[in-house]
Amino acid sequence: MCGITGNKSVKDDYKSDFKYLTISDTSGVLQHEEFSILNHKRHKEMIKINNEKEVKTVTTLMFFILIINSLIIAVLCFDIIELKNDWIILVFSALAELLFLKFIFDIKYFYFENSGEIVSIKSYPFWTINKFQWSFELPKNKIKSCHHQKKFWKDILILKFEKKEGIHQFVHYPIYFLRKKQIQDILNSF
């Protein structure tokens, strides 16, 4: 049989954040363990979300499509295969190539971390060498609201935070390839 008793203790400036547990088992051995209630709560609230795996998968697929599309354009430009109205296929292939390139260069890695006290968001294009070109760290209590907006092919995370006393500012983050549950987890963490 095991008995647990607890008593409060003041430690440094944390006041009642620490408790001592005395655990005794049937052999009469006493164990004395200290733990922080705040750290335990923070650990439960900590959330980390990123889209690295999804971005790598999608960009690999898109590069494969770009290579195939480039081969189609090369075949049509050099008249390797004679087709009626091949200029229509050439125009559509060129437009598709430009759209794919624009989409690929817009895609960004997204890292979100909420430790319970500090919210950290980092973002950078997948093709850059310099990681974390744009990062945002702020105490959670400064963030006034967080919401999600759906655009044509991308989701946007909008944070409203207090810059100075009474002055609010908005930050918009494009978030690609996150599942609905991940987006909901981000919104629920505030």
Report what the structure shows.
Keywords: Membrane, Transmembrane, Transmembrane helix. The chain crosses the membrane at residues 58-81, 87-105. β6 (118-125) and β7 (134-139) form a beta hairpin. Strands 4-5-6-7 form a 4-stranded antiparallel β-sheet. A 3-stranded antiparallel β-sheet has the order 1-2-3. α2 runs antiparallel to α3. The protein is elongated, with a radius of gyration of 27 Å. The two termini are 41 Å apart. The protein is an alpha+beta fold. The chain contains 4 helices and 10 strands. The longest helix is centred in the middle third of the chain and has 26 residues, at 52-77. It has helices at residues 37-45, 52-77, 86-106, 180-188, and strands at residues 3-9, 18-24, 30-36, 47-50, 108-114, 118-125, 134-139, 143-150, 155-164, 167-175. 34% of the residues lie in helices and 38% in strands. It has 3 domains: 3-43, no CATH class; 57-105; 107-188.
